[in-house]
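Q: Structure for this?
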Amino acid sequence: MVWVNALIQGVLVGGLYALFATGLSLSFGVMRFVNLAHGDLAVLAAYLVLSWSGVVGGSYWLSMTLVVVVMAGIGYASQRGIFNFTLGADPLPGILASFGIGIVIQNALQEHFTATDKSIRLGSILTRSIKVTDDVSIGWFPLVILLVAVVVLSGLQLFLSFTKLGREFRATADDPKTAQLMGINDKHLYAVAMAIAFGAVALAGFFQGGRTTFAPTSGGLLLLFAFEAVVIGGLGSLWGTLAGGIVLGVTQSLANQQWIGSNSLAGHIVFLAVLAIRPSGLFGARERS
Amino acid sequence: MSVPVVEVLRWSRSSRVGTRIYVVAALALALLPLWGSASAQLTMIEILYYLSLAQMWNLLAGYAGLVSVGQQGLVGVSAYVLFVLAERNGIDPFLSIVLSGLFVAGLSIPIALFTFRLRGGYFAIGTWVIAEVLRLTTLRIDSLGAGNVQALTVKHTFAGYGLQARKDLIYYAALVLAVGATVIVVAVLRSRLGLALQAVRDDERGARGLGVNATRTKLVVWVIAAFWTGMTGALIHLQSATVTNKDAFDVLSWTALVVFIVVIGGVGSTLGPLIGVAIYWFITWRLEDASTWRFIILGAIAVLMAVVSRRGVDGLIQARKPFEVFPIRRRLRIDPGVGGQR
């Protein structure tokens, strides 16, 4: 039964990884851009939730809402102000700019908040759980995270499938030049994609901060988890990303059940195995960029 | 009608002057232990090993399109190989540097097997994953101290070396690695391999069409850079005389700073790492111990360069007055033969 429990916990954490991966998957899908500051943005958001909770009357949930909105705004602005200038056939400028921004964020956080571990104390929701059997219980908080991840991914999928803006996203992803000729403002569109990516990763950062502790240097590992979820699931597929996140979460949870502390390493190894055996991902389309 | 004479020129006036300045500077540095203070020598070691790491990263990112952010994995492994060879098995520390480089070069081949399946930004994160795998694996090996500080002791590693000899030899090793790194990059770029490399960088499909084996070309450069980065990593730890998991595999010291140095100086320019390391030294010297500010300032300049001037400071200078320091370009001179017409 401990294994069933580990499996369930893994699926729940997988939801969080998928939420981390959403923005990475979206910005790659729409503009072939990989943001190496992705994990550091999640950590930044977690710190902002802590510092702004006082402003909104002590509620972390309210503070989180504010942070997600502000981060989305920063995402829009940074795409228009920085990242749009790095897009092109050569991925180098985008990689270097986002890597640099990640390191700057990390060190600015360290300068301002020191290197001490922090966590977002959300109170009773963190400890409450649904008891299934003696060995198996489902925590409310991980369940909420998984549900939110599914809602975000479904919402995004519906948005891409059924709205005018979503259609423009898909058109630009397929053929940016022609889309532009049809009157689509690609610069604005990319910025909207980045706003969604920043918003989603801010939300993920908040949940991560509630689940466990974080420090200014936590971002690197979060980037790796998000990336692994995207690649395991298959590039360019949002549902694949959810599946990839769950595969990663389950792997880590089961490995940790067998050898305590081996979760990260086991996740990396499964990622490498997928890369070696099925580079297009478990659920991805055959074509790979 | 006469046949025009076609000639490929390798040297230019500026590269003749530039290369001479480089040789004179290297000779002056070789004599530093005679005229410089002990602290100047120490500072210089750091500048030299960063120059070596920077040249190698530039070879990968600037010329082969292999943007690695996992260099800390290679440095970390080389530190532990050095520790096992020199401290545990009594092998000469300077021979151990070379052996560590060879070990890392060997290791880089299976690494390429995985990471070469990814492109661009995903390749970058892939190299980071590999570095994490190497770090976590090393951490789980109890005989390597499992995260505790491991010392390279006078009794074992440095047996037979006096304090002054040890300091001077480490300095010379750093000088050889830094000067050698620049020589390797220039030699690679001048060779057929370099021509293939730049062809692949500019137009991979076109280069493949002309019969260039792009993957093999990249792999050769990847292994060379791993070898030199591994040797440099071993030297860094021979100098610090301690090996800890956290510091040996530190992404900030062994990748971020190196990336910033190259990006500020100029990616894809042989002069770039030299300019970058000078700016790095200046900022570090001005900031003294404020390590976080060092990363914030260098990082911000690097981001600015990535967006505004893709060839860094070197690009800004070249835009005003084009010149080259090392003879890596090929120019075609066409002499219309006697009586020929243009």
